[in-house]
C-alpha cells in the first residue's frame, strides 16, 4: 500500500509510525504546509524502519501522492484545553477546501481517511468536495472511542479489551452513544459476564466508564496538549483493514442516506471495511435511550453540516 498523510503533526506522525510498526504500508509520503515539519517527521520515522517492516518513508508535495491507495487527512488545527471538537469546524473546513482538491487532482482513485476534527463533519465536507462515493471517504469516527470503551470495560472485568465486543456510535464527540445494551465479553452478554466473575457493572461503574470515554480527549489535552497515540493506532487499524481486504467490522464514520429519520448525515455505526473502503453499514439493536441518543447525535451533526458552504 502507498499511503499519503496530509498533516504531519502529532496525529499524522503517530499514524505513520503505527503503520510502519504494523507493516501496513510499503510507502508513506508526508505532506504539510510546514515542509520542514513534514521532512523531519518522515526522517525520524524512517529511522525506525530498520526495527520494523520494510517501507519507504519520505516527505513530498501533492504530486508525490501519485498512485496512493489511501490518503490520511490529519491537517488543520486541534483543540486547546477545554475547547470542543465542534469549535474547530470553520477553521478546518477552510483547510480542507484547499487540501482535498489538491489530493483529488493527483490520486482520484485513493480512499480518503479523515482524522481532523470534528471528524464526522470533516468527512462529510470531504465527500462533498471530492465527489467520491460515501464508502471511499472514511472518517475515523468513533474507532478511538470504541477502543477507549473496550479498554475501560476490559480493565473493570480483568480481561483483554480484544475480548470485549462493544461499540461507541454517533458523533466522535460530546453526543456520542456508548452502546451498553448489546455489549458482549466473548460470546456472553456483558452484564452476565460481569455477574459471573463477581465484577458487577453497577450504575456507578457504568457512569465512571461513560465519563472516562466521553471525557478522555479533554483530560489528555489538559495534561499534554493533544492526543495522538490512540488515534494513530486507530488509523493504522483502518488502513490495515483496507490493505488486507479484511471486511473488518469497525466503528467508522461515513455519510449515510438516512439515520433514524435524519437524512444525509455522517456519523459512526459498525461498518464493513475492506479493499474498497466501507462496503456495508450495520444498524445494531439498541435500547430506547441509546436509540434516542443516536438520533439526537445525528440531529446535532446534521444541523452543523448544513451551515457549512463548500
Ligand atoms: N479523529 C480523532 O479521533 C482525532 C482527531 N484529532 C484531530 O486531528 C487533527 C490534527 O491534530 P494534531 O496532529 O494534534 O495537530 P497538529 O497541529 O500537531 O498537526 C496539524 C498539522 O496540519 C498542518 N496543516 C495545517 N494547515 C495545513 C494545510 N493547509 N495543508 C497541509 N497541512 C496543514 C500543520 O502545519 C500541522 O503540522 C486535529 O483536527 C485534531 O483535533 C486529534 C486526535 C484524535
Ligand atoms: C482529540 C480527539 O478527538 C480525541 O482524542 O478523541
From TrEMBL:
Oxidoreductase listed as a keyword: yes
Pathway(s) per entry: Fermentation; pyruvate fermentation to lactate; (S)-lactate from pyruvate: step 1/1
GO biological process: glycolytic process; lactate metabolic process
Binding site for substrate: 79, 85, 117-120, 145-148, 227
UniProt function note: Catalyzes the conversion of lactate to pyruvate.
Catalytic activity: (S)-lactate + NAD(+) = pyruvate + NADH + H(+)
UniProt keyword terms in alphabetical order: Allosteric enzyme, Cytoplasm, NAD, Oxidoreductase, Phosphoprotein
Subunit architecture: Homotetramer.
Subcellular location(s) per record: Cytoplasm
A GO term, aspect molecular function: L-lactate dehydrogenase (NAD+) activity
Binding residue positions for NAD(+): 7-12, 32, 37, 62, 76-77, 92, 115-117, 140
Residues where Phosphotyrosine is found: 218
A Pfam family per the record: Ldh_1_C
Family listed: Belongs to the LDH/MDH superfamily. LDH family.
Transmembrane regions: none
GO cellular component: cytoplasm
Signal peptide: none
Catalytic-site annotation from UniProt: 172 (proton acceptor)
Domain (Lactate/malate dehydrogenase C-terminal): residue spans on this chain: 142-308
Protein name as it appears in the record: L-lactate dehydrogenase
Keyword presence, Phosphoprotein: yes
The protein's Enzyme Commission number: 1.1.1.27
Residue positions binding beta-D-fructose 1,6-bisphosphate: 150, 165
Domain spans labelled Lactate/malate dehydrogenase N-terminal: 1-139
Amino acid at each position: 500500500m502507498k499511503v499519503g498523510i496530509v498533516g504531519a503533526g502529532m496525529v499524522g506522525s503517530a499514524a505513520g509510525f503505527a503503520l510502519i510498526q504494523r507493516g501496513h504500508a510499503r510507502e508513506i509520503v508526508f505532506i504539510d504546509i510546514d515542509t520542514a515539519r513534514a521532512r523531519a517527521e518522515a526522517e525520524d520515522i524512517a529511522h525506525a524502519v530498520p526495527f520494523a517492516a520494510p517501507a519507504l518513508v519520505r516527505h513530498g508535495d501533492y504530486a508525490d501522492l501519485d498512485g496512493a491507495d489511501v490518503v490520511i487527512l490529519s491537517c488543520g488545527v486541534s483543540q486547546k484545553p477545554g475547547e470542543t471538537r465542534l469549535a474547530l469546524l470553520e477553521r478546518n473546513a477552510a483547510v480542507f477546501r484547499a487540501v482535498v482538491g489538491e489530493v483529488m487532482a493527483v490520486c482520484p482513485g485513493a480512499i480518503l481517511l479523515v482524522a481532523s476534527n470534528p471528524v464526522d463533519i470533516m468527512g462529510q465536507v470531504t465527500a462533498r468536495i471530492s465527489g467520491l462515493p460515501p464508502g471511499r471517504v472514511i472518517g475515523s469516527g468513533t474507532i478511538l472511542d470504541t477502543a477507549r470503551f473496550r479498554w475501560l470495560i476490559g480493565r473493570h472485568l480483568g480481561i483483554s479489551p480484544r475480548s470485549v465486543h462493544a461499540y461507541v456510535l454517533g458523533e466522535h464527540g460530546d453526543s456520542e452513544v456508548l452502546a451498553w445494551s448489546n455489549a458482549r465479553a466473548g460470546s456472553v452478554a456483558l452484564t452476565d459476564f460481569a455477574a459471573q466473575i463477581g465484577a458487577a457493572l453497577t450504575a456507578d461503574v457504568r457512569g465512571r466508564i461513560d465519563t472516562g470515554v466521553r471525557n478522555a480527549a479533554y483530560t489528555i489535552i489538559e495534561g499534554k496538549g493533544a492526543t495522538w497515540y490512540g488515534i494513530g493506532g486507530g488509523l493504522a487499524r483502518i488502513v490495515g483493514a483496507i490493505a488486507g481486504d479484511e471486511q473488518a467490522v469497525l466503528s467508522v464514520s461515513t455519510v449515510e442516506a438516512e439515520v433514524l429519520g435524519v437524512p444525509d448525515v455522517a456519523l459512526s455505526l459498525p461498518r464493513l471495511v475492506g479493499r474498497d473502503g466501507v462496503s456495508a453499514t450495520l444498524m445494531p439493536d439498541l435500547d430506547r435511550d441509546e436509540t434516542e441518543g443516536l438520533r439526537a447525535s445525528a440531529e446535532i451533526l446534521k444541523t452543523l453540516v448544513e451551515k457549512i458552504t463548500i
